[in-house]
Every structure is written in C-alpha cells, then in structure tokens.
Write a structure and sequence with these properties.
611 residues; MHD; Immunoglobulin-like; alpha+beta; AP2_Mu_C_sf; MHD domain-containing protein
C-alpha cells in the first residue's frame, strides 16, 4: 500500500479534485487534506506574525529549525493528524499543491518513494493538461474530465510507457483513446508480439502437453496386418439389400386409429353460430351485434361516400374539414401536383419506360458475385402525414451502405476507393462516417475501411421537404350519421415511379372496439389491437384511385362529433429497384474504372399516416 489518495489543492481556495482508492474512504482523505491546509496556513501566519499565540509550534527553537516558509518549497512531505496520522507528500506547481496521501506507519509495508513517484506522475498529468507549467484552476477546470480519468489510472499504478501514451492522447484523441489505448502500448514499444499472434502456438503447445501427459492404458500390440489394397472393392457390394429390415415393427401396434392419432393436436374450429350477429330488440338499442360480415359493393356503403370518385380533384372539399379558407397548394412538392387520375403524354411515356424496365429480370441486371469486389447501395426511408387531402409534413432519410469483401477473402487488405454522388440538388445535408469516409469536394468522397461481414453505413442524407417525391398519396375520410360511423381510405400511386408499388399494407386504427363491421374489400380484424388491415398486391401507376371502406355502429355516449371519435391509418410498403426514390445516384470517380459494384437500391415507408 503506497498511495491512498491524490488531491489538487490551490494555495488560496478549496480543493479542486480528490481521487481515492476503492477501500479508502473519501472522508478520511478530506481530513488529511484539511489538516494539510491548516498546517500550511498556520506556518504562513507564524511567518507574518511571530507573536501570534495560536501558532502551531510554540517552541522557538523548533520554529527556527523549520525555516522561513517550509511548505512553499517545490516538494516535500508532512505528517498530519492526531488520532489517525497520515503522511502527505506534496509538490507545488505554480500555486497548485499536488498531494499524495499515505499512512504514517514506520514499517516495511509503506514505500514512500513509490508515493513520491505517483505524485511526480500526477504533476506530469496536470502540466500536460495545462500545456505548460502555468497551471491555474481555470485551465484545470477545462480539462477536468481528462485529468480525473488520468489521475485515476495513475493512482492504481502505471508505467512510464503507458503514461507517455496517455499524455500524448490527452488533447487530441479524447478520453476513450486515452483510457483504452494503453492495452498493448508497452508491447508495441518494446517490440513484443501481441497475444493473438502467438495464441495459436500456445494452443498447439498445450495440446501436445495434454497428449503426452494423458494417462492412457497401453494397448496390446497386435501383429502388423498386411497392407490393404486401396483400390480393392468394398465389402458392401456383396451385402444383400434389405430395405424393409431397417424398419423395426412395433409389436404393440394397434389397429385403432384413435390410438394412433392420440399424439396429434387438432385445433377445433368455432361453431358456425359464433360468426353470426345477435339481434337485440331492446328499445333504443335495436340492431344486430357481434360477428363480422364481409360484403361487396353494397348500395348502403356506396351511398355513404357518394361523389368521391376522384382522389384529389373532386368529391370531398378540403374546406369542410380544414376551414372556410382554402389553402393554396404550392408547386414543386416533389411531384404531388402530378398525382392525378388523368393521362398525359409525359405520364404515358414514363409508364412505358417503367414497363420496359420492369420487363427485364432484376437478377440479370444487378447480380454480382461478392467475391469480385465491394458493393454499394442506397436505402431510403420516407415518412409522410396526410390530413384529409393535404400533405401536413414529409421527410426522407437515405443511407449509403458499403459491403466489402469478406474478411476471409480480403485478409488484412483494406477497402479503399473514391466515388461520386450525383443528382443532389434536392439534398438538404450530408452526414459522413468520419472514421471511414472523407469528402473531397464537388460531390466526391473517398472511403477507406477494414473488411467486414456486415454492410457498413458510410453516408447519410436528408431531402428538402418541398423537393421530396411521394410514392403514394393517401386520404382518409370519416362520416358519422347517428350511431353509424363510416370511414374510407383512398389511395393513388405516383405515376412517375419506375415500378408500381406491390405488397402494400393499409392499417386502420379503429376508435372503439367494434361490435359489428361491414368492410369492403375483405380485411383482417385484430380485435386486441383494434386494427383493421388490408393487403393490396399491387397499386397501378395510373387509373382510378383505390378505395377501402368500413362501417360500424358507435354508441352515442362515446362522442358527439368527429373531433372526439377519430380513426387514423398508416401504410407500410417496401420496394427495390435500379434507382433510388429521391433520384440520388452513385457514380465511379473515374469513368471506365470499376472500383465498386452498384447493386439494387431500396426504399421503404417510415411513419406514413393519414388522419
């Protein structure tokens, strides 16, 4: 036990920092530092006022032997305390005392020189933190976290090699590099091999020792047999084939089929009556309750949404819900103004180009062997919120992913190349993974990283909301008539998409637990989550908008209007293709040079809601 605590004490003021061992209470360390401060102040008072009757030493000869100002020296040690005596080793650096606290026992268990060595190392830490001997409390406070962690390591014992590595990384690399960089520092400086390099030899050596030291009974030595012909025919050729003999017959086999099928679990189906509605004839609550009914385009359901044949142009006027004043729609909202049901020449050409691209198998266009080189692709996530027919907010986030060669194939060789990003006029900002990629300017980037099994995200970007393209526009309409609540979801695809959306899921959150439902088309009801789910195999790029309808009875006490009982829906979809949704594309830095392979890009829905 050499040093129990370290402390930084200004000549004027309270202690800046105190660091203790785990088993040494901080309260005792504070007692030692407080006694050191009182002794120092008493010596200073004795120097300036020799006639002070309260000074610590009343013997004139003892005071003369101490000197003018004994604790103003650059270093020294002092024993403080009455019942618990501690030895305080100190060094003075520009008005800051660096204190090392240990016990004052005069036995061989205390190594005072080791405590002095720890105090000297602490002086090196604060001098490095303050960039010189001009050590002040203000400079120490700026680097308080680094000094705290460094003194914690020094207090537990550190070699000069590791201390030099810590001091070198204090200003540049941060706390994490300073704390963890010294694991193999001594081995690297001394030229020793690391453990992973020699672990294989150690394992082989231990396996050889275990093989020779194992206590095995010696086997009887047999006469050496004549060497066998390696090209001789196998004896299994002469073995008679017996297919039935491999199966063992159960002697207790029963002819009763109920015994044979006893171990099978069969889910019993509910009776047919469970799916039927129950008629209630109580006055005021007449009607059918319970069950679920799937119906087609019925007249009663169609009359509720009569006139909503057009998704965005006709039908419901947005002013009925938003307010008396219509909000003008600005142009340039990522193609929203082009989401119409009519046909135009540009849309027809775009649809024809998309159908031509869709005719080519995607595997033939994008198949690459990973062993040929690194691959890059873009993954985008788009979120949008629709209120009636108006777009409330929209956002798109994109990620560039790099898939390097497998470590088994690449070995220790790093993946390094440059690439270019085009069509970035709609991009709001880029964020780089600085440890793997750097910007060269003018849309050029340079990547350098070690091989990895998993794809690595290296670049992230977001689009301007007014320039974000929408793959799908959704509209939710809600009507209540008495005790009946009717909801309809309309949707239409962006005609500028390269490939139509497929496997789209629409989920409607119901405001109450339904007793009776009428839906069109068929949907799946999750009564626990109060969700109604539709699955649409494919949404065409042009044509009339799709409609999803539901009607259910609602108790009159559950709300007096649409403001209190509201349903909202959200959409889930995911697509892959040769281009990204935003139009951002990858290019090689040098024309004609293949530094990487561009594979299929994808985009998916984030928070895509309508209410």
């Amino acid at each position: 036990m050499s040093c129990l605590a370290l402390s930084l004490q200004p000549a004027n003021g309270s202690d800046i920092l105190i660091q203790t061992r785990e088993w040494f209470p901080p309260a005792r360390a504070l007692v030692a530092t407080s006694a050191f401060r009182k002794t120092r102040l008493a010596f200073a008072a004795t120097k300036h006022n020799p006639n002070n009757p309260n000074h610590l030493y009343s013997d004139d000869s003892a005071a003369e032997s101490i000197g003018d100002d004994p604790l103003a020296a650059s270093s020294g040690q002092l024993i403080v305390g009455v019942e618990s005596r501690y030895r305080v080793v100190y060094r003075l650096v520009n008005g800051i005392y660096v204190l090392g606290i240990t016990t004052a026992d005069q036995d061989n268990s205390i190594n005072v020189f080791e405590c002095i060595h720890i105090v000297n190392q602490s002086v090196s830490v604060i001098v490095t933190a303050c960039r010189g001997v001009d050590v002040t409390p203000e400079k120490l406070n700026r680097k308080y976290a680094e000094i705290y962690m460094a003194l914690d390591i020094v207090l537990r014992g550190v070699s000069n090699i590791r201390l030099a590595a810590m001091l070198a990384s204090m200003h540049g690399d941060g706390i994490a590099k300073m704390v963890h960089s010294a694991l193999d520092t001594e081995n690297k400086i001394r030229g020793a091999e690391t453990w992973p390099a020699v672990e294989v030899h150690a394992v082989e050596h231990q396996a050889s020792i275990d093989a020779f030291s194992s206590d095995q009974k010696p086997e009887k030595q047999e006469e050496p047999e004549a060497p066998k012909d390696p090209f001789a025919a196998s004896e299994s050729i002469n073995k008679q084939e017996d297919l039935v003999g491999e199966f063992k017959k159960d002697k207790n086999q029963s002819s009763d089929l109920s015994v044979a099928l006893a171990g099978l679990e069969v889910t019993t189906l509910p009776p047919a009556e469970a799916t039927q509605a129950t008629h209630i004839s109580v006055e005021g609550f007449e009607g059918d309750y319970g069950g679920i009914e799937f119906s087609g385009e019925q007249a009663s359901l169609g009359e509720t949404f009569e006139g909503f044949s057009d998704a965005w142009g006709g039908g419901l006027d947005a002013s009925e819900f938003v307010g008396p004043k219509k909000i003008p729609k600005q142009q340039g909202l990522g193609g929203l103004e082009l989401l119409q049901t009519g046909d135009s020449g540009d849309k027809a050409a775009a649809a024809k180009a998309a159908s031509g691209a869709a005719g080519t198998p995607l595997e033939n266009q994008l198949f690459r062997n990973r062993n040929e080189g690194p691959e890059m692709y873009i993954v985008e996530e788009i979120s949008a919120e629709f209120r009636e027919s108006l777009l409330a907010r929209v956002g798109l986030m994109g990620l560039f992913y790099l898939r390097t060669l497998p470590p088994k194939t690449a070995g220790d060789k790093e993946t390094e190349f440059s690439f270019r990003v085009d069509n970035t006029s709609a991009v709001k900002r880029f964020v780089m993974q600085s440890s793997k990629v750097s910007s060269l300017g003018n849309g050029m980037f340079h990547v350098r990283t070690a091989p990895s099994e998993e794809p690595l995200p290296i670049l992230k970007y977001s689009l301007l909301p007014r320039l974000t393209p929408l793959p799908l526009r959704v509209r939710l309409i809600q009507r209540r008539s008495g005790t009946l609540l009717s909801v309809m979801i309309q949707y239409a695809s962006n005609p500028d998409l390269q490939v139509p959306l497929s496997d789209v899921t629409f989920i409607l959150k119901l405001p109450v637990d339904p007793t009776l439902l009428k839906v069109s088309p068929k949907a799946v009801l999750n009564r626990a989550e109060r969700e109604l789910k539709w699955h649409v195999p494919e949404i065409p790029l042009k044509g009339s908008p799709g409609k999803l309808r539901v009607r259910m009875p609602v108790d009159s006490s559950e709300g007096e209007g649409d403001q209190e009982i509201e349903a909202f829906g959200y959409v889930k979809f995911s697509m892959q293709g040769t281009t990204s949704l935003s139009g951002v594309c990858l290019r090689t830095a040098t024309e004609g040079k293949t530094d990487f392979y561009e594979v299929s890009h994808s985009y998916q829905s984030g928070v895509y809601t309508c209410n």
